[in-house]
Design goal:
- With about 120 residues, the protein is mainly α.
- About 75% of the residues lie in helices and about 0% in strands.
- It has five helices and no strands.
- Helix 2 crosses helix 3, helix 2 packs parallel to helix 5 and helix 4 crosses helix 5.
- The protein is rod-shaped.
């Protein structure tokens, strides 16, 4: 191989590892990471939908104020109350803005949102 005894030892160990099933273990580990990623994404989607539902329910509770307060203020108030009531509800402005967009554009929230704010439309 080479004149380096250590390199010969490492190459021999690699050959033994490949023959002993290390490759199978690496493939299994990769598949496990892929499955975990998919499960994490599914869990994240479910948590997002659950948070949107909580927020929409809060907006619906504040629907009586639609004629007196701006749409923006009602959504802000609903966000504040939802954060206050649920410790694990996201607190970042970016996420709140994303949720506001989702409520206005993604069903089933879009039709419920419009029912609250577009009563006379």
């Amino acid at each position: 191989m080479t004149y380096d005894d250590f390199a010969a030892g490492y190459y021999t160990k690699e050959i033994q590892s490949i023959a002993g099933g290390t490759e199978e273990a690496a493939i299994l580990a990769k598949e496990t990471r892929v499955k975990a990623g998919k499960a994490g994404a599914r869990s994240s989607r479910q948590r997002r939908l659950q948070n949107l539902e909580l927020l929409m329910q809060q907006i619906e509770q504040l629907s009586g104020a639609v004629d007196f307060v701006s749409e923006e203020r009602i959504v802000e108030q609903a966000l504040e109350k939802t954060v206050e009531k649920h410790e694990d509800f996201p607190k970042t402005q970016k996420t709140h803005a994303d949720y506001g967009t989702a409520l206005r554009s993604v069903e089933p929230f879009k039709s419920r949102y419009e029912a609250v704010f577009r009563k006379n439309a």
